[in-house]
Structures are given as structure tokens and as C-alpha cells.
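Hey all, quick one. A colleague (J.T.) asked me to put the arginine job into the tracker so the inputs and the C-alpha cells live in one place instead of scattered across chat threads. No bug as far as I know, just bookkeeping. Sequence used:
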Amino acid sequence: MWGGRFAEGPSAIMREINASIPFDKALWRQDIAASKAHVAMLGAQGIVAAEDAAAISAGLDRVAAEYEANGVPENWDLEDIHMTTESRLAELIGAAAGRLHTARSRNDQVATDFKLWVREACVQADAALGALQVALVTRAGEHADTIMPGFTHLQTAQPVTLGHHLMAYYEMVQRDRSRFVDAHARASQCPLGAAALAGTGFAIDRHATAAALGFAMPTANSLDSVSDRDFALDYLMAAAQCALHLSRLAEEMIIWASQPFGFVTLPDSLSTGSSIMPQKKNPDAAELVRGHAGRIIGCATALMVTMKGLPLAYSKDMQDDKPPVFEAASLLALSIAAMTGMAAETRFRTDRMRKAVELGYATATDLADWLVRAADIPFREAHHITGAAVKLAEQKGVALDALSLDDLRAIDARIDSRVFSVLSVEASVAARASYGGTAPAQVRLRVAEARLALGLGEG
Ligand code: ARG
């Protein structure tokens, strides 16, 4: 397609290093759609005769049907999906096929195809994350009253509700979704018609092709159109942030499923066994989600480094933009699906959570706060008194609220029997009813809002 000025063909190594068809064949639907929009516009503008435009369009439909039925042939000599499609079109309809490439270049073609693909990937990620939210919100609603230890430094800190903990991930996922929605919106300008880099002398209608492909408008600068890949980086950075969130949920599932914690029993369907230790049930899916986050971040890093310092406009380095995006998209889709299944089907061992929170002296802050409120003791002193109470409970091997009033009064005589109303874990979580707090009533409110936003019933 470009050999006119060359005396000899490319070497085998040149053909191999140059070929993007092994991966950019994934763009075939976008390539056909963009070519059809382009040729319809060429016909409407009288740049290509109406009969030729119609023949090209029908021919592109035949090529698409072949790809659908048999896959895209991988011939390195044709380099990429653009030339593969055009060459097959020529075989099918003859010389008129040569008119398709009027007033465009592979540079604007690849930018358009890839942007269409990334836009669709944003829509898919948003939808898949919506399904994860449904699972999280459903389980959070079931466990608005379930009490577990809340951690800082992975040490028991204060009692929280399991529903509150699960809803923390709902919030993260909500922001992840908004990042994909933003990336989609920012990629709403169509590069087609920028041609090689400078625009074209043909009287094309870029607004028509942009609209036909579902873009809001054409891009405003031809150099920028063919040389920027920030739409792909927006997607990859949204994917990396999302993968980070998923890896934290995965990590918690791994820890919670370990025997010393025993907070959850993971679904068999998302676990594996050991070939040597019959008792083992391993959280492999969660571990792989944790691991995939590393690869997805690697994909984002790879494209950033590829783009860094590239002069305008197109350089062949940019052909390397697609593998990291495709890889990240498939890893992310699997990761979201795995975590959705885990959120939906994990069995929460609420008895174990309850025991852990009682043995962790999680209501120590409540005791200190009570000393401040009821006995007007400065918080620093109250903190110290409470420390002594925890030490005594630890020595006796009992929960804080199992200490007797005499025990407590021996530590500080200002304590009276009203203190027992704040020492239970139920009282502790119920008291944290500030907006966004862990109180079951607050969790139910947020779950109800989330269910409404997700289009779910009241549940
Ligand atoms: N295969 C190329 C890519 O994916 C298409 C653009 C080629 N443009 C060029 N000037 N050689 O980036």
C-alpha cells in the first residue's frame, strides 16, 4: 500500500517489528464503523461518486461479516487492521476500494478506532462496577447491625458494623465509576478527518462523521488529533485506581479467610484446593485480583513512558499504545467479576467477628469519652484511666464490660454504674450516629440512598 518509492521490500525483521495486526485486529468493528462513516460522508460531499460510495459501504459490510464468521486474518505484510480491511475490500469490490482512503490517513484512522474502543471500555467498566455495587449494597443491607472490629494499623480500634465496612467499598467504587464516566466524556471529540497531521484539502464534513460515530464533535486541532493518547491514559489511570481499590477488598478477603481471623468463608466457586494439603482452601481468585492490580498499574506506566517526550505529531512508538490498554481492560473485567462474585457469595462468620471485637477492648474509647462527659475528667487523664481498665481486663481475660463496678472504682472512684450503658459494643456503634458514622441507623440510610441510585427496590 505504500511501496511506490521503494526498490526492495521490507526484511522479515521489519515486517515482524512493524506488524500491529496481532493485537489491533481487536479494533475491527471500530475500523469498519469509522470507514463506513467516512465513505458515507465522502459520498454526501461529492468527493467520491455515489455508486462507488455505495459499493465501498456494501463491501465493508461483507468484510465485517467475514471477520465475524472467521476472525481477522493475520498477514504481517498488511501491518495493521486498517490495511487488512482495505486490502480485503479491494479483493471483494475491485478498484473502487482505492477511493476509500481519500482525505484520511491511518494516523487519524487509528486514533478514531482506538478512541471508539476506549469509549466502549469506559462504558463496560462503569456497568461492571455497577453490578459490584449491587452486590456490596445488598450484603451491607443484610449486615447493617452486624458488629465487627474496626481496625487501624490492623489492630482492633473501635467496633464498626460490617454493613459500614462494605459500604466503604461502595463509595470507592462510586468514585471509580465517575472516573470512567469522566474519561468517556473527555473522549467525546472525533479525530477522523485530521488526516496525516495537517488536515486535508478535500471539502470533508467532520461534523457529519463525528456525529455518525457517536462523538459530540470533531477534535479542534489536527496535530493534537493524531498525536495524543491521553484518552487511553485517562482510561488506564481510572483502571489503575479501580484496581487499587479492588486489591484492598481482595486483601481483606484473604486476611479474613485465614484461620486466625476466620471472619469469612469464601465461596468454593472462587477458591482452589491444594494438591498436597487436603485441608486447604486457598483464596486464589482474591490473590489474583491483588496481583492483577500490579499488572494494570504496569500497563498505565507503560503507556505513560511510551508517550513521554514524543515530538508532534504521529510517531510509530504510538503503535505500542494498544497492548497495555487491551491487557488492562481484560484484567480489570476479570477482577471486577471475581470481586462481584465474592461480595455476593461470601459467608460472613458473624459469631467470629463478635468474639474478636469483644476480646479487642474495642470500646475503650467509649469508656474514655464517658469519663469526660459524665465525670468531667480531662480527656488525657480519661485516656490514662481507661488504659488501666484495659490492662486489668486483659489480666482477667475478660471483655471491658465484664469488669465489675468494684474493679472499675478501684481504678478511679469517680466511675459509677452508668458506665455500663456505654461499654457494650452495641452501645458503641449506636452512639456513632454522626453523618457517615458506623451506627446501624446511619448505615441503613446510606444503603437506602445507594439502592435508589442503583435503581434497586427498597430491599
Ligand atoms: N499501525 C499503525 C498504528 O497502530 C497505524 C498508523 C500508521 N501510521 C503511519 N504513519 N505509519 O499506530
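Adding what we noticed when we looked at it: The pocket of arginine is lined by residues 20, 24, 79-80, 106-107, 110, 314, 316, 318-319 (CB under 6 Å). The mean pLDDT is 96.
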